[in-house]
């Protein structure tokens, strides 16, 4: 058995490439890096990599992480600017004996020393989004972050049961310079253990980090829960905990896969999508729906939905 699961529809093309690699015997490390890089390189996905939405100073700061489920090695970068594929930098850091989590200028110096590709990650399209957002906000009110924070997070298992997890994001639109969310934080944005399985998150990092939700899902799987059961228990219980303690809970969506290739997903928001492929399942996008009793279920995305998704993403923008 092998498989890969990822947050959001935007991961479909990447996991399709990874699926083909896994079929040919590639390992989980190479497959997941390829899949994440595919999302990072596509400029029309405005929450990851090239074309990612900027912070309040109109600079694109990226966060990424990579974890090896066999060794538990972790590599992470936060608030890194002007490098094309932060997930590859994170993978390189995971091999270092120390200094595995670098941020800002330190991460950029490391990437430069090790020959990673420099690239201006701020696109003209992202500038239009920025200027339109500034105009929407009155001059005398605080510029608040836009709600978009669609991290791409993945979990992968290869035919030899080696597992990896990885994330990449540009974080909150209009965030403060230097803000880092849950995505590169082990246990919050991601976690994987090849003896059990892995999980990854997308949502409001400030709330996801309060519960170490990715680790909690892996812990529940270790106790014998299926990936679906673990996701639902972890997300629903922590969503309720936050509401009881704070009066509200931020967006939180988690995906998981165990070392048998079984998978699961849970969310506390409407409109979440995820993509998954296994030996027995072609690369498929699912939409998470809720019935009249609030119970979650999955529906395969229709061709109409898929066509509209891409049409919306690549539609021309006009500066207001």
UniProtKB/TrEMBL annotation:
<dbReference type="InterPro" id="IPR000246">
    <property type="entry name" value="Peptidase_T2"/>
</dbReference>
<dbReference type="InterPro" id="IPR029055">
    <property type="entry name" value="Ntn_hydrolases_N"/>
</dbReference>
<feature type="binding site">
    <location>
        <begin position="179"/>
        <end position="182"/>
    </location>
    <ligand>
        <name>substrate</name>
    </ligand>
</feature>
<protein>
    <submittedName>
        <fullName>N(4)-(Beta-N-acetylglucosaminyl)-L-asparaginase</fullName>
        <ecNumber>3.5.1.26</ecNumber>
    </submittedName>
</protein>
<feature type="binding site">
    <location>
        <begin position="202"/>
        <end position="205"/>
    </location>
    <ligand>
        <name>substrate</name>
    </ligand>
</feature>
<dbReference type="GO" id="GO:0005737">
    <property type="term" value="C:cytoplasm"/>
</dbReference>
<dbReference type="GO" id="GO:0003948">
    <property type="term" value="F:N4-(beta-N-acetylglucosaminyl)-L-asparaginase activity"/>
</dbReference>
<keyword id="KW-0378">Hydrolase</keyword>
<feature type="active site" description="Nucleophile">
    <location>
        <position position="151"/>
    </location>
</feature>
<feature type="site" description="Cleavage; by autolysis">
    <location>
        <begin position="150"/>
        <end position="151"/>
    </location>
</feature>
<dbReference type="Pfam" id="PF01112">
    <property type="entry name" value="Asparaginase_2"/>
</dbReference>
């Amino acid at each position: 058995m092998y498989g890969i699961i990822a947050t959001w529809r935007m991961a479909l093309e990447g996991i399709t490439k990874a699926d083909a690699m896994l079929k040919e015997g590639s390992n989980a490390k190479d497959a997941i890096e390829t899949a994440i890089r595919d999302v990072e390189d596509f400029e029309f996905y405005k929450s990851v990599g090239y074309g990612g939405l900027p912070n309040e100073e109109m600079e694109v700061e990226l966060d990424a992480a990579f974890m090896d489920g066999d060794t538990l090695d972790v590599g992470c970068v936060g608030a890194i600017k002007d490098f094309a594929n932060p997930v590859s930098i994170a993978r390189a850091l995971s091999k270092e004996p120390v200094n595995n989590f670098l941020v800002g200028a330190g991460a950029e110096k490391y990437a430069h020393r090790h020959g990673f590709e420099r690239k201006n990650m701020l696109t003209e399209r992202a500038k239009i989004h920025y200027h339109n957002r500034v105009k929407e906000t009155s001059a005398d009110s605080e510029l608040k972050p836009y709600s978009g924070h669609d991290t791409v997070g993945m979990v992968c298992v290869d035919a030899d049961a080696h597992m990896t997890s990885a994330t990449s994001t540009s974080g909150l639109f209009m965030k403060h310079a230097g803000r880092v969310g849950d995505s590169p934080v082990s246990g919050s944005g991601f976690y994987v253990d090849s003896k059990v399985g892995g999980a990854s998150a997308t949502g409001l990092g400030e709330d996801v980090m309060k519960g170490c939700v990715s680790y909690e899902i892996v812990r529940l799987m270790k106790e014998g829960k299926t990936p679906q059961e673990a996701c639902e228990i972890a997300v629903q219980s922590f969503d309720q905990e936050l509401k009881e303690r704070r009066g509200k809970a931020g967006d939180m969506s988690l995906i998981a896969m165990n070392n048998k290739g079984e998978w699961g997903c849970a969310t506390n928001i409407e409109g979440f999508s995820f993509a998954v492929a296994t030996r027995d399942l072609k690369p498929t996008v699912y939409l998470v729906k809720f019935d009249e009793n609030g119970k979650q279920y999955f529906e395969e995305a229709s061709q109409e939905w898929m066509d509209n998704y891409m049409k919306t993403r690549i539609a021309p923008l006009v500066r207001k």
